[in-house]
Structure formats: structure tokens, C-alpha cells
Amino acid sequence: MSNEIHLGSATLGCSIDALRGARLSSLRVDGRERLVGFSRGAPATSWGAYPMVPYAGRVRGGRFSHAGATHQLPLNFGQHAIHGTVFDASWSIIDQSPTHAVLVASLGRRWPFAGQVVHEVSVDAHERAVVCTLTVSTTSDSMPAQVGWHPWFLRPATLDIDFAEMYARDDHYIPTGRRIAPPPGPWDDCFVGARRAPTVTFADDARITVESDCDHWVIYDMPKHALCVEPQSGPPDGFTLAPHVVTPQSPLRRTMKLIVR
Predict the structure, then answer these.
(1) Which of 47, 99, 176, 183 has a Cα-to-Cα distance from 68 of 20 to 30 A?
(2) Which residue has the higher pLDDT, 258 or 10?
(3) What's the whole-model pTM score?
(4) Domains in the chain: how many in total?
């Protein structure tokens, strides 16, 4: 099998880079690229649409506590840890067809628990959607976990969102736990209470709606070249603010759909 997987067609298709985090390295709609692509020397967090596992967004100081013990993560974003341990890892391909792929990776030595994550990606031509599912599991007694995706949609594009609340954040762009009414953008913020699914509209009027069973969304539209719509199973610094515990009997599984309207 190749390390670069191509699913679907130019009308609706995607590519997956197994060596660079099992990310969507390309998303093709009506023959046009919709994601920021790889460029040599660019940070691994700045392109494609990559899985964020076992945490999404910043972990304050890289520190968290679980089951009475405090753990220190490697700092990869100034004085904080960000976006998990597998976005720059090599994943193994365990299944592949013209419309479906399954990849798996260990959570690695940078994570203090035994665990793995599976990324399933499929192209549904009938629904006109690229469907991504993450499942994170552990063989430890328990561990905290989050999952999410970080798509970088190419501008020119506009964003339509409607959320009930937003987390207030501090000077480190980390939520404090308090929720407020969403102010006008631009944003690098976490939202909850989606009244409708976020939609990105491109200059040629192609629209991609991002649907997910995740209940938190980070919107990052400050860059001039791209905007990001990130479904997450919890907020940044979620191990402190809203911890979710995974056990061998209870993995964490979430899905994101990129639906072409």
C-alpha cells in the first residue's frame, strides 16, 4: 500500500497522508482544492485536516491530573502543549478501498498511558460527503481523552456560524470555564450550543457544511489565507475544564462529516 491514499474522484474526493498524521492532505470539490496543502518547512499544525488525539487545543502548561497523579506533557506550543500526540506521527494503514480507508496509530511515548487511535475515512458519493471517524481506546485502567479535527479551509471563503455561547479565554487563548454570549469575530475561540452546522462558502459558491456529534467547536478565522472549523469532543484544556474518561470497556468515538451542499 502507498503511504498516500486517494479516495473518491475530482468531483468529490480526498487524499490521506499516512506518514503525516493520517490527515486529509487534500479535499477536492468540483475539481478544486479546498484545503491548505503541504509546503516544505511549514509547521505540521498548519495544513490539511488532521486528527487531534488524545487532546485538542492547548493544555495549560502541558500539565494535567488524572486519578490522583499529575502528568507533564512535552511543550510544543510555547509554554503549552497543543493538539495531541499523533498529528505528526506515522500511522499504519489497515484497510483501503477506492472509497474507504482505515488507519491506526499508537498514542506514543509522549502520552503517559497505553492507548491507540483509529481514523476511518470514507467518501459517500450519494450523500456528497467525506466522513471521518476517530476512535480512541486504552489498555490502561483509565485515561482522560479528547478527539477532534483541525481542517484548514482555503480562502477566499466566508463562514456562516450560529452558536449560543462561547468560552471566555485568557491572554493565552485558553478557556477559563466561564461562558459568554459570542462577540463579533475574528475568533480563535471555543463555542458550544450550535444552532446550525457551520458552513464554509467558497468564491465559486461551493459550500461545505461541517457536521459532527462533537459538542464543542473551535473557530479560528484570523489568518488571511485560511479559516478553521474544528469539531472537538471537549474544550481546550479540557482535562481540567471538562474531563472525559476512557476505559478499556468504554472507548471514545466521534464523527465529522464534510458535506458538499
Answers:
(1) 176
(2) 258
(3) 0.97
(4) 1
**Locate cell 464554509: which residue?**
200
pLDDT above 90 covers a percentage of the chain that reads 98
Q: What is the mean pLDDT of residues 33-39?
A: 97
Q: Decide if 81 contacts 91 (C-beta within 8 A).
A: no
What is the tens place of the pLDDT at every residue in 126-181? 999 999 999 999 999 999 999 999 999 999 999 999 999 999 999 999 999 999 99
CB-CB contact of 22 with 140 (8 Å): no
Find out whether 252 and 233 touch, Cβ atoms under 8 Å. Answer: yes
**SS3 per residue for the chain:** CCCEEEEECCCEEEEEECCCCCEEEEEEECCEECECCCCCCCCHHHCCEEEEECCCCEEHHHEEEECCEEEECCCCECCEEECECCCCCCCEEEEECCCEEEEEEECCCCCCCCEEEEEEEEEECCCCEEEEEEEEEECCCCEECCCEEEEEEECCEEEECCEEEEEEECCCCCEEEEEECCCCCCCEEEEEEECCCCEEEECCCCEEEEEECCCEEEEECCCCCEEEEEEECCCCCHHHHCCCEEECCECEEEEEEEEEC
Which residues fall within 8 angstroms of residue 21, CB to CB, at 6 or more apart? Answer: 44, 48, 50, 51, 86, 87, 88, 89, 91
Domain that holds residue 58: 4-260
Q: What is the CATH number of the domain that holds 235?
A: 2.70.98.10
What pLDDT, in 10s, does the model give residues 45-68? 999 999 999 999 999 999 999 999
